[in-house]
């Protein structure tokens, strides 16, 4: 059971006997790739990413591939990336009329359930722009439900693609080649960026052109080759901004003796090649005008400036108890840690104060706003924060003793007091496509599209910005946190009863501006004159 919980997003052990598998080949930048050399002896090109000096080849002889001229790294295709863990959702079915006049957002107010858009000043930004069809945003995720009520005519279904391939470990997958959402997550992300202004919700930039690129299957995971191919496809269709609400970890630093996951050559395997390949692809995209925005991750670990995990504890990455598998030290976050990526942490709305019998160990940050969400990764690698929501008391649900503590929904729709981020969900609770499903969700997956939507508004207001300029502009387009953060790190003292798996209750909060980015993203500032 433990392995099923956490090993899907971590480095796989190297197999002793070679069999027919997909391999990622990383080339020297000066190499002219000889595709004929790749296809001899029965090898097959799966994805041609040669513009970025990367190829994906199916072969039963990896040693032969290593000898191909110009190859500087070879990695077996693995499931390094998936939907971030610890994300919580509550799905509800709410029909929404498509009447043009039924719009809940305006330049004066946000939709009642979308406190997150009010916090980042979307209504004020709309006085300048609601986006432009010339700005193209790709959602690299689980796909998009093109029939959902919350999606508008700005969705470019014709350009949307799936790079998912059939996988025996995911029997839920219906049609790997179909870009439609079979999990629900990608629809939430897409409609938050550019969904239509309807009766329940709106996207941040509803006039933006959206493209769905499916790289995660119905089970929520993807192979590295799927993600890399999806990123490169975005470049071919002139996408300006890519949102990646997904992630995983690899042994990018090589052997780290103190690491549970990266302590020997077998554990490390070809992780360094995987890291270098993601780095090369992101660099290629940036140079051609595409900015990548990614979720920081939901394990409440500290990331140093290079994206490496810098501490020994997480919030129950593997199990809610002291266990060495919760220690991610030695790993590096992908794509959140990759150079050039805008990395987004999550904040909550307001931490409600509970009674003494509602939590196991008490609380922190009661009645304060803009607190780091209990699950969010943090550290020097974070560029900005955005509202990702939290449970009502902003503590891990396994520390809650009441339903009010872990509540995501509103107490009544009139109160609109939902702690979770409200948005469209692409499937119902049984996994069937649903055009009227919505969810109260929390995660850095919910925070990243807030920044992607603001980026789309910024580019509409400043159409001549390069990707590098847009990146710098977003880091400046922030407001100060409304309150000093009091969310602590996970306990790192072995003497603590919470060591290695829970919050370090009773200790000072994580430094607000040092480890939560420059501030909270602000749409109004992003569209303002430079």
Automatic annotation (TrEMBL):
One of its GO terms (biological process) is proteolysis. PROSITE patterns: SUBTILASE, SUBTILASE_ASP, SUBTILASE_SER. The active site is at 141 (charge relay system), 185 (charge relay system), 445 (charge relay system). Keywords: Hydrolase, Protease, Serine protease. Residues 133-479 form the Peptidase S8/S53 domain. It comes from the Bacteria. GO terms for molecular function: serine-type endopeptidase activity. The keyword Protease applies. Signal peptide: none annotated. InterPro entries: Peptidase_S8/S53_dom, Peptidase_S8/S53_dom_sf, Peptidase_S8_Asp-AS, Peptidase_S8_Ser-AS, Peptidase_S8_subtilisin-like, Peptidase_S8_subtilisin-rel. The keyword Hydrolase applies. Belongs to the peptidase S8 family. This is Peptidase S8. The lineage of its organism: Bacteria, Bacillati, Chloroflexota, Ktedonobacteria, Ktedonobacterales.
């Amino acid at each position: 059971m433990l392995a099923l919980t956490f090993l899907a997003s971590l480095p796989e052990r190297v197999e002793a006997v070679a069999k027919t598998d997909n391999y990622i080949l990383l080339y020297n930048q000066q190499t002219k790739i000889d595709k004929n050399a790749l296809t001899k002896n029965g090898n097959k090109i799966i994805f041609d990413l040669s513009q970025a000096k990367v190829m994906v080849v199916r072969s039963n002889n990896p040693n032969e591939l290593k000898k191909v001229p110009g190859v500087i790294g070879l990695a077996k295709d693995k499931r390094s990336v998936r939907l971030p863990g610890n994300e919580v959702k509550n799905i509800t079915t709410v029909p929404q009329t498509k009447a043009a006049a039924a719009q809940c957002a305006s330049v004066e107010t946000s939709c009642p359930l979308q406190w997150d858009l009010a916090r980042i000043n979307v209504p004020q930004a709309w006085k300048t722009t609601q986006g432009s069809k010339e700005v193209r945003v790709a959602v690299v995720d689980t796909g998009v439900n093109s029939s959902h009520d919350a999606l508008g005519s700005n969705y470019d279904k014709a350009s949307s693609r799936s790079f998912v391939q059939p996988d025996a470990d995911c029997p839920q997958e219906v049609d790997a080649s179909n870009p439609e959402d079979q999990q629900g997550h990608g629809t939430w992300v897409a409609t938050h960026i550019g969904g239509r202004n309807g009766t329940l919700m709106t996207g941040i930039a509803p006039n933006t052109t959206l493209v769905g690129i499916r790289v995660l299957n119905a089970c929520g995971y993807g192979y590295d080759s799927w993600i890399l191919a999806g990123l490169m496809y975005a470049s071919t269709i002139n996408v300006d901004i890519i949102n990646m609400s997904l992630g995983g970890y690899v042994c990018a630093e090589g052997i780290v003796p103190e690491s549970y996951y990266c302590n020997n050559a077998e554990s490390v395997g070809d992780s360094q090649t995987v890291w270098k390949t993601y780095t090369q692809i992101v660099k290629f995209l940036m140079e051609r005008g595409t900015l990548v925005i990614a979720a920081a991750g939901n394990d409440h670990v500290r990331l140093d400036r290079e994206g490496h995990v810098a501490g020994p504890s997480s919030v129950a990455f593997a199990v809610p108890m002291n266990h060495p598998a919760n220690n991610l030290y030695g790993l590096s976050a992908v794509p959140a840690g990759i150079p050039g990526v805008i990395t987004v942490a999550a904040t909550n709305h307001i931490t409600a104060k509970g009674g003494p019998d509602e939590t196991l160990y008490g609380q922190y940050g009661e009645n304060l706003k803009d607190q780091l969400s209990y699950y969010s990764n943090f550290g020097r690698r974070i560029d900005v924060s955005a509202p990702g929501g939290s449970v009502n008391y902003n503590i891990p649900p396994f520390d809650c003793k009441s339903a009010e503590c872990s509540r995501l929904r509103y107490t009544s729709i009139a109160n609109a007091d939902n702690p979770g981020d409200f948005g469209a969900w692409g499937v119902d609770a049984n996994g069937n496509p649903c055009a009227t499903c919505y969810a109260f969700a929390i995660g850095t997956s919910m925070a990243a599209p807030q920044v992607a939507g603001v980026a789309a508004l910024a580019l509409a207001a400043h159409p001549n910005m390069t990707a590098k300029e847009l990146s710098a502009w977003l880091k400046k387009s922030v407001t100060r946190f409304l309150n000093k953060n009091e969310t602590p790190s996970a306990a790192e003292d072995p003497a603590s009863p919470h060591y290695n798996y829970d919050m370090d209750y009773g200790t000072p909060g994580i430094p607000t501006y040092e480890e939560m980015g420059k501030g909270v993203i602000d749409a109004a500032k992003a569209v303002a004159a430079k």
